[in-house]
């Protein structure tokens, strides 16, 4: 796996695909710069080598060149974070981009206008990719969040750099972390899958059954499993058409020697609102008119023990409706358990969608081993797919 650490960038212009798809407020100010901060180590290493940097990214989902999606809005923020005044090219291809890249001196940084102002980007157009390729000597992919897309800048452009392409630090870390969980993992390995639906996680479950010793199925997903086994779940969220699948997963797990743990008790609410009445129920016996919204105290205790006995942990999906304070306690307790295990040497990876939001919201990001930056890309990796953006560098 070739990374930026394997290349000396002195005198070279690096064309880096970053993920600067950051949120902006109504005055076009960046409200969360995490993604810019995340790309900083890669950019700084290249500048310190004595190279120059051409940054390309998308922002939002523009239909053509819409001013509100211009990357011009983030130039000052990127400059502030890098400590270098960043130059801007008002088009990512063509004369404007080519002359800006040509005139760029070593130690300088150029940010190109939003790639998605051109429909060719998401179509993976080869001519468009060829135009992008003129803007640098080395292609660096550091955008994990878009690595599952075969877009021009994330995948197709790599073929124009057969011997001069590599992973940035961020993307390399993502790949190493996934490998640590799915391939080179220290046993016992635990996967915790929560969130709303079985249907969105089924391919992940099927892929990881061969790789884990324990599987915790929590959150809204668990009720489909409970109902399928004859439990009474009240008005809890359930995918009736996935009950047979749930039973099949339990059967497969048994055959593969994977121990499956479903919450034994839940916080049940009489309404889907933060100030609903609540009671603790056996998960197999939830009264009519009540719905399970969080893992109960006994479950939290059982999960704490399993977490602390594991050497490798993958966490995807909350244990309850964590967006509502009253139903966040199970997810917070799990975060604390994982933080404690991590402190004692367990490798913990949090990735994919809402668990990352939960981890950030409750301040666990520095207490787990790795928090993935790519929602969809992480989910596809966990499903066992080879991401086109990664494959294009390895080829
Ligand atoms: P996902 O994106 O699949 O990880 O699902 C995350 C969502 O699942 C969050 O918005 C949670 O509020 C929701 N969720 C978790 N547990 C439950 C539950 N018991 N009932 C309804 N929604 C839930």
Structural class, judged by helices and strands? Answer: alpha/beta
Radius of gyration: 23 Å
Portion of residues in helices? 25-40%
- Spatial ordering of strands, largest sheet: 3-4-2-1-5-6
Name the bound molecules. Answer: adenosine monophosphate
The biggest beta sheet is recorded as: 6 strands, parallel
By CATH, the superfamily of the largest domain comes out as Phosphoglycerate kinase, N-terminal domain
Subunit organisation of the chains: single chain
Please provide the count of β strands: 17
Q: Flag low-confidence runs.
A: none
CATH class of the largest domain: Alpha Beta
> How is the CATH topology of the largest domain named?
Rossmann fold
Q: Give the second-level CATH assignment, the architecture of the largest domain.
A: 3-Layer(aba) Sandwich
Give the overall silhouette. elongated
Distance between the termini: 10 Å
Explain the overall architecture.
There is one protein chain. Strand 15, helix 11 (329-343) and strand 16 (347-350) form a beta-alpha-beta unit. The chain starts with 12 loop residues before the first strand and ends with a helix. It is built from 14 helices and 17 strands. The chain has helices at residues 34-49, 75-82, 94-103, 120-123, 126-133, 169-182, 202-208, 222-228, 243-256, 297-309, 329-343, 354-361, 375-382, 388-394; strands at 13-17, 52-56, 87-89, 109-112, 138-141, 165-167, 189-193, 214-217, 232-233, 259-261, 265-269, 278-282, 285-286, 291-295, 312-316, 347-350, 370-371. The protein has two domains: 4-172, Rossmann fold, CATH 3.40.50.1260; 185-382, Rossmann fold (3-Layer(aba) Sandwich), CATH 3.40.50.1260. The model has no long low-confidence stretch (mean pLDDT 96). A six-stranded parallel β-sheet has the order 3-4-2-1-5-6, sandwiched between helices. Strands 10-8-7-15-16-17 form a six-stranded parallel β-sheet, with helices on both faces. Helix 8 crosses helix 9 (243-256) and helix 10 (297-309) runs parallel beside helix 11. With 395 residues, the protein is an alpha/beta fold. The longest helix has 16 residues, at 34-49. The radius of gyration is 23 Å and the shape is elongated. Adenosine monophosphate is lined by residues 195-197, 200, 219-220, 237, 292-293, 317-318, 320-321, 323, 353-354.
């Amino acid at each position: 796996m070739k990374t930026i650490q394997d290349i000396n960038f002195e005198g070279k212009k690096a064309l880096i695909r970053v993920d600067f798809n950051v949120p902006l407020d109504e005055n076009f100010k960046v409200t969360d710069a995490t993604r810019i901060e995340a790309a900083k180590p890669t950019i700084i290493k290249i500048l310190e080598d004595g190279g120059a940097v051409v940054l390309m990214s998308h922002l939002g989902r523009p239909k053509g060149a819409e001013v509100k999606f211009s990357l011009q809005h983030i130039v000052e923020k990127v400059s502030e974070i890098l400590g270098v005044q960043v130059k801007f090219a008002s088009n990512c291809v063509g004369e404007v981009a080519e002359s800006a890249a040509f005139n760029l001196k070593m130690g300088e940084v150029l940010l190109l206008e939003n790639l998605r102002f051109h429909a060719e980007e998401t179509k993976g157009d080869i001519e468009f990719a060829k135009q992008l390729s003129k803007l640098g000597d080395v292609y660096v992919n550091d955008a994990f969040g878009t690595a599952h897309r075969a877009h021009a800048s994330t995948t197709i452009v790599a073929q124009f750099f057969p011997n001069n392409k590599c992973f940035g630090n961020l993307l390399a870390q993502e790949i190493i972390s996934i490998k640590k969980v799915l391939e080179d993992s220290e046993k016992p390995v635990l996967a915790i899958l929560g969130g709303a639906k079985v249907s969105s996680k089924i391919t992940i479950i099927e892929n990881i059954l061969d790789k884990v010793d324990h599987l915790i199925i929590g959150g809204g997903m668990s009720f489909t499993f409970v109902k399928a086994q004859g439990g009474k779940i009240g008005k809890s969220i359930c995918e009736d058409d996935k009950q047979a699948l749930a039973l099949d997963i339990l059967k497969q797990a048994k055959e593969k020697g994977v121990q499956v743990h479903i919450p034994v008790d839940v916080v049940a609410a009489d309404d889907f609102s933060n100030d609903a009445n609540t009671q603790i129920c056996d998960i197999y016996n939830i009264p009519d008119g009540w719905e399970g919204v969080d893992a109960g105290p006994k479950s939290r205790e059982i999960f704490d023990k399993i977490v602390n006995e594991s050497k490798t942990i993958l966490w995807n999906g909350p244990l309850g409706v964590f967006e509502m304070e009253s139903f966040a306690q199970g997810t917070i307790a799990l975060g604390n358990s994982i933080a404690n295990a991590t402190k004692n040497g367990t490798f913990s990876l949090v990735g994919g969608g809402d668990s990352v939001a939960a981890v950030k919201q409750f301040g666990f990001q520095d207490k787990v081993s790795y928090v993935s930056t790519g929602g969809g890309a992480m989910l596809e990796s966990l499903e066992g797919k080879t991401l086109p953006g990664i494959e294009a560098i390895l080829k």
